[in-house]
């Protein structure tokens, strides 16, 4: 996946929403950790989702099921622990 593919397929959005299958998620992650623009988009997207769900109140449980998978992947991704 290159950056244009990621943008054209809304990969970051789908990734955030947990809509990518395992293969697609891995392809996007491989690109994302090489691409500051996509990494930033995912980071901002997570923050936005946090805010949105906070405003929706009581939907916290739904958020957890919708994005927990993606968060776990993102936060535990080994590439993320590498020093810059
Ligand atoms: Zn990119």
The ordered H/E elements are HHHHHH
Question: What quaternary form is this?
Answer: single chain
Sum up the overall morphology in one term. globular
Cα distance spanning the termini? 22 Å
Describe this structure in words.
Helices cover 76% and strands 0% of the residues. The protein is mainly α and 84 residues long. The protein has one domain (3-81). The mean pLDDT is 83.
List the helices and strands and how they pair.
Blueprint: H1 3-8, H2 11-16, H3 22-32, H4 36-55, H5 60-76, H6 78-81
Give a quick summary of the entry.
This protein is an all-alpha fold and 84 residues long. The chain has helices spanning 3-8, 11-16, 22-32, 36-55, 60-76, 78-81.
Features:
single chain, 84 residues, mainly alpha, binds zinc ion
């Amino acid at each position: 996946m290159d950056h244009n593919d990621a943008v054209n397929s809304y990969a970051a959005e789908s990734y955030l929403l947990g809509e990518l299958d395992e293969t697609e998620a891995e392809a996007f992650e491989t690109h994302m950790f090489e691409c500051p623009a996509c990494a930033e988009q995912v980071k901002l997207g997570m923050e936005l989702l946090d805010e949105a769900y906070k405003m929706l109140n009581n939907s916290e449980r739904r958020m957890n099921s919708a994005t927990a998978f993606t968060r776990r992947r993102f936060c535990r991704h080994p590439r993320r622990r590498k020093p810059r």
